[in-house]
Every structure is written in C-alpha cells, then in structure tokens.
Amino acid sequence: MMKFICLCVTLFCALSSSAQFFKQNFVTLDQVNLVATYSMHYVEDSTNQAHIRNSDMLLLLGNNVSQFESKGLYMSDTIIRKLMTQEQVQQFFMNPQSPHPSATYQIFKNYPNGKLTFTQPIPGTNFKYEEPLDIFNWKLTQETSTICGYKAKQATCDFGGRSWVAWFAPELPYSDGPYKFNGLPGLIVKIADTRNQYVFELLSIGKPAKSLPVDFLDDDYMVTTKQGFFKAYDDFRADIVNREKAAGATNQMQQIAAKNMSERNNHIELLRK
Question: Which residue of 99, 170, 206, 218 sits 20 to 30 Å from the alpha carbon of 47, by its own alpha carbon?
C-alpha cells in the first residue's frame, strides 16, 4: 500500500505540475477515424528479466495526424478534464480504483507536417521535442504470419539501440504503428525487439463509438531536443530522494521512491541520439 501511495504522489506531481489538467487549452489536430488498441509487454528492470509488466496502449488514427499514449493516461485525462479543483484531482490519483497511466508520454505523428512530437511531464516541467518521421531504415523480408486476424508481412530495423522485428498488415492502409514506429506500407500489428524486452501487439481496431478529436495540449512546454529531455529525465532519477524529501515525504517513502526509480532502468530507447 505504501508503494502505491508513493507512486500516486509522484504521478500526481508529474501530471499536475505540467498544468495539463487545469489550463484545459487543447488544439484539435484531426478527427479520429480508427482506434487501435495494443498490448505492451515490457521489462522495466534490466536486472530482473522475469518481471514483465503489461499495459494497454492506444493509437488514435486520424486522416493526417495520429496520437499514441497509454490507455490509462487517455482515460484519466478524459476524467480529469471534468474536474474543477486541484483537490479533486489529488483525490482522483489517491483512489486505487481510478485508472492510472503506466506511461505519461504522448506521441503525435505528422505534427508538425513530416515530423513527430513527443511530450512528457517530469515533475515541475512539461517537456516537448520534435523528430523527423522518416528515421526508420526498414528492411522487408519474405516472412509472413497472421496476427489479430490480419495477414502480415515482416520487416526489420535498428532503432534506439535495439534491433526490432515488425509485422505489418497491408490491408490496413495506415503507415503507422505503436510508439514512434511508422513508415511501412500497412499498419504495424506487432513489433518486438530481438530480446523481447518490449513487445507491442494489436488487440483490436475499429471505428470509435462517437466522434473523437486528436487533441494536443497547448501548454507552456520546455521545448528541447531528445537528448535534452533524456538528460532532464536522468537528472530527475538521480535526485529523486532529495526531491521527495523537499516535498515532505517520510524516510520510508523516500526509500520506496528511490527503489521504484532504480528499477526503471530499461528504457525503450537505449541510445538517445
């Protein structure tokens, strides 16, 4: 229970400090045509390969722009937009029954045109950086498979210090996929690194039950590069105990926070160039 409380406090600070849930200034970039739900299985702690975490992720596909984030973040964001005070938001995060995001980043592809935009709050600051879309040097193979009911073809690439094997479905005419992956002639229905430390697999895809926008938060971001973001992230991890202490956390909560952070040592992008 103490571990849950500590996690909630850290998460609340990360999200609320970004002003994401109080300014409510969103820009509609597109309308959602399809919602693709992926399972993400990942090894968060490289020293404990047997501990595999699971999370559902959403890819919202518009005509020109797509949005990728955890299902928990999307659900909590939807709920929190309706709350009026910081106290209500804090109560939401402290409630074990509330949906809690496993990841707090968002990725918008083809925004701006020809690029992707990555946003993620680190307590105190909401960061944003851009990258070109065409960063993947795919190599097509002759392998085929059936995944989630779709006939899929195989492609491979190196990205972020890992080698990846992807399966894409030409009958789904979206050159998109989970995380930052894109650029294949069909939606990526499964992709995994060769050590199976990160595995994304399509669970379902369909039209939304009601009209949904692809919304981008118009926030006062710290605009940086990918390298700048990861430096800030690493600095935060290294200083977690001092930050928790300054926030009034007990010694026990400080140590739990330090342990939790030390176990998050296996980022999907090992190389950050």
Answer: 99
Distance CA 197, CA 195 (A): 5
Assigned domain for 271 exists? no
CB atoms within 10 A of CB 31: 15
pLDDT surpasses 80 at 254: no
> Would you say residue 56 lies in a domain?
no
Banded model confidence at residue 243, pLDDT cuts 50, 70, 90: confident
**How many other β-carbons are positioned within 10 Å of the β-carbon of residue 34?**
17
| Per-residue pLDDT, 139 | 98
Instruction: Give the total number of structural domains in the chain.
Output: 2
Angle, helix 251-262 to helix 2-16, in steps of 10 degrees: 80
At residue 196, does pLDDT exceed 90? Answer: yes
Please report, as a single letter, which amino acid is at residue 31: Q
Backbone angles phi, psi at 36, to 5 degrees: -105, 125
Cβ atoms of 201 and 227 closer than 8 Å: no
Indicate the pLDDT class of residue 90, thresholds 50, 70 and 90: low
What is the value of pTM for the model shown?
Answer: 0.85
The end-to-end CA distance of the chain, in Å, is 38
Query: Which amino acid is residue 156, in one-letter code?
Result: T
Q: Would you call 78 exposed, middle or buried from its count of C-beta atoms within 10 A (0-12, 13-18, 19+)?
A: exposed
Distance CA 1, CA 83 (A): 25
pLDDT at 20 exceeding the cut of 80: no
Residue 143 in domain: yes
Domain assignment present for residue 64? The answer is no
Q: How many CB atoms lie within 10 A of CB 195?
A: 12
pLDDT at 179: 98
The boundaries of the domain holding residue 151 are: 139-194
